[in-house]
Amino acid sequence: HLRAQIEKLRRMLFGTRSEKLRREVEQAEALLNQRRQDSDRYSGWEDDPQVPRQLRQSRHRRPLPAHLPREIHRLESEESCCPECGSELDYLGEVSAEQLELVSSALKVIRTVRVKKACTKCDCIVEAPAPSRPIERGIAGSGLLARVLTGKYCEHLPLYRQSEIFARQGAELSRALLSNWVDACCQLMTPLNDALYRYVMNTRKVHTDDIPVKVLAPGRKKAKTGRIWTYVRDDRNAGSSEPPAVWFAYSPDRQGKHPVQHLRPFRGILQADAFSGYDRLFSAEREGGALTEVACWAHARRKIHDVYISSKSTTAEEALKRISELYAIEDEIRGLPESERLAARQQRSKALLTSLHEWMVEKNGTLSKKSRLGEAFSYVLNQWDALCYYSDDGLAEADNNTAERALRAVCLGKKNYM
């Protein structure tokens, strides 16, 4: 167990975390190299001396995006007469070339001057009303606030680094000031957050997951561990044209009461991992009725894959091959309507799942319950009904990768913040 854990940590630190079998990767690379050779043989490249020049392809640059604004710089020759004979030059044509340039953001101060007027016959004074500000009595304009929020939550820039960037642009904005701006903006966007929450919960299927985050509370020297929960509405794989959306929530711990509270208005399918904190959501005693539990094949596969990487077990390899057959079907039907996805799963996936279950039950009987592969197989068999639900519902997914992808931005931010 210790050696396996060391190997897993080494792969996480220094190697790829892809779960594809090395043999499959090597086969794909070999096929790619062969197709590259075939392509070069029949079409040719500019730098291939064995291909006749007239058959070589020219590598044209991709045109710059048409929607970007254009700034025209027209250059005229200083010569008005022919340098050879002195005759007058006539217009012949133009040669143009485009270059992509960045117009960097720059800080500026907007000074608002309100004119006062007084009545010449009485003491009445008239003054233009002051324009509204995003933050009352605040010095930041809406564009600057948007830049700070985008930098923090989209580009994962900590506020101390943003403070340094603004300092290089000539404005000393402390991290505390930026933090106050972020807090004020969050308060302003509460109605938007509430509307997003209602939209995410008003659907038949939600993906959920959570991730630990370090939190440094005021007055504490040591950071504590909180949780970021994500709830995703995304039915594009089932042919839906409704826009996807993600709602995030924070909690100071990982108690099951938090997802219970977050999902209070939801009714439908919940795709999640096997976290025990979700159990109350699938209970008939839940207010509003039990949610439908759908487990994650990617999570189950990952446990078997870790065993295969460390031990090269042929049994683990066979399990991975069988699971990959299920995913091959999912790749083919991705984006099709629910009815077509359901028909394909009923006709093809059902039989594979039945065969996989029989095989795993047989193999699990020969494995030690304390072995890592035995634990992985037991996990799959204990979750079997929830893992197989997707084969009876065209809307459900085979895994919970949708929620895991939604948390990638949080992972990037964690690396930069801490």
Automatic annotation (TrEMBL):
<dbReference type="InterPro" id="IPR004291">
    <property type="entry name" value="Transposase_IS66_central"/>
</dbReference>
<dbReference type="Pfam" id="PF13005">
    <property type="entry name" value="zf-IS66"/>
</dbReference>
<feature type="region of interest" description="Disordered">
    <location>
        <begin position="32"/>
        <end position="63"/>
    </location>
</feature>
<protein>
    <submittedName>
        <fullName>IS66 family transposase</fullName>
    </submittedName>
</protein>
<feature type="domain" description="Transposase IS66 central">
    <location>
        <begin position="137"/>
        <end position="417"/>
    </location>
</feature>
<dbReference type="InterPro" id="IPR024463">
    <property type="entry name" value="Transposase_TnpC_homeodom"/>
</dbReference>
<feature type="compositionally biased region" description="Basic and acidic residues">
    <location>
        <begin position="35"/>
        <end position="44"/>
    </location>
</feature>
<dbReference type="Pfam" id="PF13007">
    <property type="entry name" value="LZ_Tnp_IS66"/>
</dbReference>
<dbReference type="InterPro" id="IPR052344">
    <property type="entry name" value="Transposase-related"/>
</dbReference>
<feature type="domain" description="Transposase TnpC homeodomain">
    <location>
        <begin position="1"/>
        <end position="71"/>
    </location>
</feature>
<dbReference type="Pfam" id="PF03050">
    <property type="entry name" value="DDE_Tnp_IS66"/>
</dbReference>
<feature type="domain" description="Transposase IS66 zinc-finger binding">
    <location>
        <begin position="79"/>
        <end position="123"/>
    </location>
</feature>
<dbReference type="InterPro" id="IPR024474">
    <property type="entry name" value="Znf_dom_IS66"/>
</dbReference>
